Amino acid sequence: MKFALIDRILELDPGKRVVAVKAVSLAEEYLADHFPTFPVLPGVFMLEALVESASWLVRQHEDFAHSLILLREANNVTYKSFVKPGQILRVEVDCRRLALGDSQFSGVGRCDDREVVKARFVLRHLNLIDGDPRMASADERLVSAARKRWALIAGKTVCTPERGVDTSLPVD
């Protein structure tokens, strides 16, 4: 099963900050097991929502230069409450450092103005071709899929606080 947790990018300040949302639905398969009588978004998925949001910031900043953006380490992760079906997790991620090959972020997730998760984390950016030249086509497929997903979650509503609507984003 593949998870794409971010439903929409609300704000993007390129290379600096991203705000995104995840709407939790009872229809999501993993909630049947987590937990059957008290379904809640697993804590690791709350962290993944922060990581995915930061990944979009990296992809947009680097013009999709890397096919893989992976969590390298997570620090000071704290969970303060549950996220239940019907709630919307709003994640705000700030870039602390963005360099070739890796990046550092801090992020917080909230439901109804209540902090539910907070973390600092490091992402690694890479291409499969770096380890095996035969993987070039796999890199191309991954980047193409990421661009298509970006068009769906970014749409026309992404804006930056300083610059207004970012016209470089895909238009429906």
Task: Sum up the structure in keywords.
disordered C terminus; 172 residues; 22% helix; two-stranded antiparallel ribbon; six-stranded antiparallel beta sheet; 37% strand; alpha+beta; single chain; Thiol Ester Dehydrase, Chain A
Number of separate domains: 1
Instruction: Please report the total strand number as a whole number.
Output: 8
Class of secondary structure makeup = alpha+beta
Roughly how many Å apart are the termini?
28 Å
Under CATH, the topology can be stated as Thiol Ester Dehydrase, Chain A
Task: Name the average pLDDT.
Answer: 91
Beta-strand share of residues: 35-45%
Assign the CATH superfamily.
Hotdog Thioesterase
The DSSP helix count reads: 2
Following the backbone from N to C, one meets helices and strands in this order, namely EEHEEEEHEE
Name of the CATH first level: Alpha Beta
Low-confidence stretches: 163-172
